[in-house]
Amino acid sequence: MISTPVALLVLLAALLHAGWNCLLKASSDRLLDTVGLAVAGSLLSACLLPFLPLPAPASLPWLGATIIVHVAYFLGLVETYRDNDLSLAYPLMRGIAPVLVALFMAALGEPLGSRGVLGVALIGIGITLPAWSGLRQPAFGSRRRWYAAGNGVIIAVYTVIDGIGVRLSESAASYTLWLFFLDGWGILAVGLWRRGGGVAAYLCRRRVPAVAGSLLSVGSYGIVLWAMTVASIPAVAALRESSVVFAALLGHYLLKEPMGPWRLLGALFVALGAVLLRCG
Q: What angle do CA 76, 98, 132 make, to 5 degrees?
């Protein structure tokens, strides 16, 4: 289902994904720092694209569709985090996504075996566990809960679109860089709409974290998209979302956040699910 070298690379991608989320977690303005990360990723992609072939024409409709979905994800993310802790909303979003990806891909003719289904389910539960205790808090109201759940659906949609698109592209690197190049300007437009003229000055002040975050982000998703060309899309998507566990560990050791029994239990479920995906 997924070979050991590919699984290890996807886990590295999950760690990189957790790394740039940790940068955002420590930010005083997540909206503008996300804009900075996206713009830096776009500029980085622009420097590399001249050395790569264009994606195959069959992938272009998928590439166009995913830009729209990614910008919708960003808008949903802003609303989700407006009055809500990252530690509650993030696991809920990321836990829903791999389960939905497995269902979508089964409907499209790429089902998982019985072990794979169990593995995805364990990873989904493990990712979501840290948020379960928070769901009972009055601060995490129904409206915010629906924003988080809705973004989980959006994550699943763009994962399926990108999985199909990158397979048709004949060049995972080219597809990835075009995605980041185009996506960055859509997210910048959202930032300008929300904050106006103050965006440029902020991005100049925060250029170092933006570049660092963009390198982590492009590297992370590039590995994932390549992995989807050589392995099962649902299996890769589920392993990628183990970034939630890495984010919890980074938050504990770097940001001094409490670990707690729910996060430890969640990490155990994710580990078991990963073993099943590897052996399925």
A: 70
